[in-house]
């Protein structure tokens, strides 16, 4: 079992408690494969033989992911028959904004302050998410990746200066991208360009972290989903990319995408040689975020309101309020992967030209 001890997982199973106080777990217990409600630990089994399983799909011949929140017997007549044990709670909306904000502040800083900094580095983009994580481990070095001139490098330099933190820049190159893409595809089992673009800078940053002697990487994953960080959430219900009629409903839609995203991110970081640490995805933070009303998620175009307000006593205001771009755009990974594809003859008029380029590198 990864992420929790057996006794805690047994209790969560018996009580069907989806948020039992962990940062995620997965593995085998009492003849069953289990994976937590947000899929924070990837888990796979053989399609036809659930008794054969692994945390890495590359160890298996015909792997399938165990869906989040499920329990699957590994032997006997019920082998492979899934049971949905845990589902994401749907608490009533908080009516006391001050109390809701206090709950977020307590949960976030209990989580980040409890991170052990032994062998730890921080993935630092200069946004409020990674800055909050970095605040809990003041002696850990911060790393940012990107092409020179990119938004993320500039933002990270500004934030590190404001916070008086050591910042190490991992400058991306075309040669590094061409080398890394096949390694990423192998780790993920995916050639989807968006997935590859998102994890490219993360993979190359994590490689540098591992080369520098650190084996754990603290990340801000989960903050955008939990606290309303996406433009499509802010625009709900008028954005066709979400089905919800409210900002809060749209944020919940994003939270439900986490299992697939986290499988991608965790497998990438492990392939690069580090173990991810994601304090903002601890159960206590999830529990505090779920009841937030619309106005503590998005207000007057300002996203992640509750997280920014919670961070203000700890971070410089310029950092707590910093805008953030999606990593594939903020690092120029998306732009430069597209450039490489076109240079290799995969023009934009061609269908899925970047994916064709990715597949050509794998071949």
UniProtKB/TrEMBL annotation:
Residues 54-82 are annotated as: Disordered. This is Asparagine synthetase B. InterPro entries: Asn_synthase, Asn_Synthetase, Rossmann-like_a/b/a_fold. Pfam families: Asn_synthase. Transmembrane segments: none annotated. GO terms for cellular component: cytosol. GO terms for biological process: asparagine biosynthetic process. GO terms for molecular function: asparagine synthase (glutamine-hydrolyzing) activity; ATP binding.
């Amino acid at each position: 079992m990864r992420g929790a001890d057996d006794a805690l997982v047994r209790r969560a199973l018996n009580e069907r408690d989806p948020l039992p106080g962990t940062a995620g777990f997965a593995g085998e217990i009492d003849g069953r494969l289990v994976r937590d409600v947000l899929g924070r630990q990837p888990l796979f089994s053989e399609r036809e033989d659930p008794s054969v399983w692994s945390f890495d799909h590359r160890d298996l011949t015909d792997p399938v992911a165990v869906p989040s929140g499920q329990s699957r017997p590994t032997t006997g007549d019920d082998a492979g028959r899934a049971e949905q044990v845990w589902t994401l709670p749907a608490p009533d909306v908080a009516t006391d904004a001050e109390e809701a904000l206090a709950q977020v502040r307590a949960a976030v800083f209990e989580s980040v302050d409890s991170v052990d900094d032994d062998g730890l580095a921080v993935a630092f983009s200069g946004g409020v998410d990674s800055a909050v994580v970095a605040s809990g481990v003041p002696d850990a070095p911060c790393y940012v990746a990107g092409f020179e001139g990119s938004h993320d490098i500039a933002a990270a330099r500004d934030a590190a200066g404001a916070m008086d933190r050591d910042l190490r820049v991992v400058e991306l190159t075309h040669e590094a991208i061409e080398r890394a893409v096949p390694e990423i595809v192998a780790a993920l089992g995916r050639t989807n360009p968006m997935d590859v673009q998102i994890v490219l800078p993360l993979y190359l940053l994590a490689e540098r972290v591992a080369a520098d002697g650190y084996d754990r990487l603290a990340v801000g994953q989960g903050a955008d989903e939990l606290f309303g960080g996406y433009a499509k959430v802010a625009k709900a219900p008028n954005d066709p990319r979400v089905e919800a009629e409210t900002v809060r409903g749209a944020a919940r839609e994003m939270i439900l995408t986490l299992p697939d995203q986290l499988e991608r991110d965790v497998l990438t970081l492990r392939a690069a040689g580090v173990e991810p640490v994601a304090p903002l995805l601890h159960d206590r933070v999830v529990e505090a975020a779920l009841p937030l009303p619309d106005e503590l998620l998005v207000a007057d175009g300002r996203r992640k309101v509750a997280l920014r307000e919670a961070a203000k006593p700890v971070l410089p205001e310029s950092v707590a309020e910093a805008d953030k771009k999606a990593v594939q755009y903020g690092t120029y990974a998306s732009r430069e992967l597209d450039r490489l594809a076109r240079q290799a003859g995969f023009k934009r008029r061609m269908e899925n030209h970047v994916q064709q380029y990715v597949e050509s590198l794998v071949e």
